Prior knowledge:
Rossmann fold, six-stranded parallel sheet
Amino acid sequence: MNERPKPLAGLVVLDLTRLLPGPVATLHLADLGADVIKIEDSGGGDYARGMGAGAAAAKLKGEDSSFFKLVNRNKRSLRLDLKCAEGVAVFLRLAENADVIIESFRPGVVDKLGIGYAAVNALNPRIVYCAISGYGQTGPWRERAGHDINYIATAAVLDQIGTHDENADSAPAVPNFQIGDLLGGALTPLVGLLAALIDARATGMGRYVDVAMTDAVFAHAYFPLLATLAEGHPAPRGADLLSGGVPCYGVYRTADRRYLAVGALEAKFWALLCATIARPDLIPFGLATGDQGAWTKGELTALFATQPLAHWSALFETVDCCVTPVLTLDEALQHVQLLARGMPVNVDGMTQFAPPYRISDFALDQPRPAPAIGQDSDAILAAAGYAATEITTLRTAGVIG
Length: 401
């Protein structure tokens, strides 16, 4: 029996994005079978090739960074100078038969280059053209520079991250998880462009998808909004229901300075937790606030500090009450559940993450490593109908590389 094609087999994506958000979006498309053509400039290409932990050592060996390799597997690379007319012509020729274009330049850049939505749509009315930016294609901040920290700050999410301290004004905690880049710049574009793609296949008419990372984060700030609707303002940092404001939901330090994550929100889980630690007197106070809440958290804090993490992990291993150890990444990579789900995978001798979904008749079989810059330029142009002599001329002129 023939192997079933991957869900997005036959989909052609021209990827103009760099660094983290757009490349992660197109990583998902590539893993699902799309032909993602990563179009890189005639200089150094995607900046991610030389960024991230270990990048300097990789450069000395003539290799791309691990950062680049993590988010660009299963793609092909075309090195193309879009600042010259010949390069623009090559792009538009490719765009005529593409299904999706994704870009992450500042608003207006692709139009100035001559490869914006209007130019492509005139040649290919079914194109789905997705623009990822920090603040969107409209509004007074449309051209502002920014990074993840700026987007989550503007969306009122950074203000909510951190611990509550009634005696001091603690600063927000900067997460080592790029909420704006990944929720906003990687996953949200996929929702928009795949919806537009379904419509394009049904009607023959594409759409323009404008994704602002700030919008995407702001649109998911549900609990701060709920508190504001109820009280006129969000809860203080670290004092909301799901940020440490009640005893049954938070983190507690152990004797060896590790942490337990307690998520016993429901009464049945909280009661089971209290029974397991032999403190049935705490059962009425799982959702307590004020003095009762502070007292209950103090009791838990003192108790969990008496034993190391291994003790508590073993105690709660067979007790289904939403208490788990806070793992390091090394530990997570070896965790029985994540291993059973096949989440760590080896690609070209390097640990990477598998796609975070399970689809029937689909697997990440023999993924291709991230491409060297421009390694597929000739093959991509040949498939687009360029003769070998034309490709040589474009290479000699520096249009491709």
